[in-house]
Amino acid sequence: MSGASGTPKAASNSTLRVTLLLALLLLLVGAAGAGAMALLQHAIRPPTSDDIAQLVCTTYTTQNYDPLLAAIDPTAVPPAATGPFDATAQNTLRKTLQSLDTGSGVVTSCSYSGPVFADPSNDKSQRRYIFTMQRAHHNGPLTMPMIFTGQPDGGWKILRGSDFSGAG
Which of the listed residues 44, 61, 77 is the one where a domain comes to its end? Predict the structure, then answer.
C-alpha cells in the first residue's frame, strides 16, 4: 500500500520540480531578452557628433577609410564638393587619403577638440571639430577642421566640404 500512496506523491514532487524549473527558465530567458534588447537599442541609436569624431580618429589611425566614407553626408557643398558622392567620388577620396599615407606617412596620433558651433549664429544643426593629427613622415602636426551636420534621424555626418587631407 505504501507503494501505491508513494507514487502520487512522487509524481506531485516531480510536477512541482518541472514547474519550478520551467518558471526559472522563463525568468532567465526573459532577463536575457531584456538585456539583448538594451544592447540592440544601444547599437542602433543614431551616432552622436562625438561618436563621429572618434570614428574619424580611428579611421585615420587604422587606414581603414570605409567607415569614414560612410560617415560623410552625400549632399553637395559647392564649391568645395560638387556632384554626387557616388562610388567614383568615394574612391577618389580614398585614393587621396591612401596617397597621403604613402607620401607623408600614416597617421600615428589623432586627437580632436570640439564641438563648437560652426556658424556664428549658433546654428545647432552643424558642429565644428578640430582634428590634430601627426603623420609618420611629416614635420609637425596637421590641423583639420571638419564640420558635422545633423541628420533627420538625430544622428550626425561629416559635411562633404570638410578638410579631409589637412591641406585646407
Answer: 44
